[in-house]
Amino acid sequence: MTRSLVLTADDAGTDPDADREIAALLAGSPLTATSVITAHVEGDPPGGAENPGAARAVEELARAAPGVAPGVHVVLPTPAPEGGFDDVADRVGDQIDALARATSAVGSPPPDRLDSHQGTLYGLLGRSYLAEAIEVCARRGLAFRLPRGLELYGDDDPLLATSVVRERHASAVAAADAAGVRLPRVIATHRGGDAEARDYATLRDHYLRLLERLPEGTSEVFLHPAPDTPRLRELSAGWWRKRTWELRLLGDPVFIREIERQGIDLVAGW
Question: Which InterPro entries does the protein's record reference (predicted)?
Fold first, then answer.
């Protein structure tokens, strides 16, 4: 087997400057995928239930990388919605439909996978929605960002090392396999903020080490690249430097050469 990598920019649709950078990266960097937030995110300017920036992001992507199918970056409220299984499945389905309408309007491929803003589908901030997500993915023919193995995403995380979480994860992987939902082998990112990233060289070393550790099969590394703007500094206090460093990383010849040296195939999906 070979080692393949989906290299994803998350959070498209939340900032016009970041959207332009993501679109440009998809046209001329190792970046191969992106996910779009279609639901209103708490703390953003009011815009109704849907995120008004999603259509703008899709238009940017269509101009720069018309063949890219975006992922649906699902937002769910915390604490958990009061409704049961059907309510949550409907919320997820509404976000898929919103992104599908946006891609259809510009002639882009429809969304092809589901992932989770701030881990809300996984239950990292409260109740798990894995059953709902797997059911929706199976019904819609979507892949799901649920790693088969936690060895990279769970580095030094005591929560992900607990037996309860491990059992829940194993059950969800089995359910996805039974339903025919495609999963990545592993997922990885830098989960801390500016303080944990420290500086650009340290952050780059983190991602270089991740490349070395990718197992056989198709995995995903996701980042949150963004340019340095007053809006970013205001809305991402404690995180904005890392986002600008991740933007820099995607154009760094050292990072690009390491992907090639490791013999990693860059692909758009798993």
Answer: Glyco_hydro/deAcase_b/a-brl, YdjC-like
